[in-house]
Amino acid sequence: MTDTLTRSERSERMSRVRGKGSVAEMRLRRLIHGMGYRYRLHVGTLPGRPDMVFPSRRAVIFMHGCFWHRHRDCRLARLPKSRVAFWRAKLEGNRRRDEDVAGRLKALGWRVLVVWECQMRGGDLNEVSIRVRRFLAGGSGGEQDEIG
């Protein structure tokens, strides 16, 4: 199947995809800030440049987009219908890189939480706030935790 957009239209659309400051990330940041927690953003000295870093708690939070990071069993993580081989390899590479980054952070003594885009789209963020509060209180035992 061929792409339904021209090359320039596809390029323009893809240029709108941002790695930082997405709607979901901003919503998560406001939620966590409103809970009274303070954090550093996108610390470049840590593997993967985590979205939020809580240095005194040795904890990091990644806000993952469901499509780009292959959220299992999520309707937002469907493969495009064109260039399937390219997208499968690209997105699988992203997933493997995420696992590697989480492993490197854990080896350095950091706890890792992943929040998924689809969790931030819903109106009720109660589950997210409970999991974040538990995680930041040290309840995850140092292992990678995921919401969703």
Architecture (CATH level 2) name: 3-Layer(aba) Sandwich
Number of helices: 6
Q: What is the fourth-level CATH superfamily? A: VSR Endonuclease
The dominant shape is: globular
- What kind of assembly state do the chains in view correspond to? single chain
Report, as a whole number of angstroms, the end-to-end distance.
32 Å
**Estimated structural class:** alpha/beta
% residues in beta strands: 5-15%
Number of domains: 1
Radius of gyration using CA atoms only: 16 Å
Specify the helix fraction band: 40-55%
Please state the average pLDDT score: 86
Largest sheet: 5 strands, mixed
Give, in order, the helices and strands.
Answer: HHEEEHHEHHE
Quick one: CATH class?
Answer: Alpha Beta
Low-confidence parts = none
CATH topology: Endonuclease, Chain A
Number of strands: 5
Major sheet strand order: 1-2-3-4-5
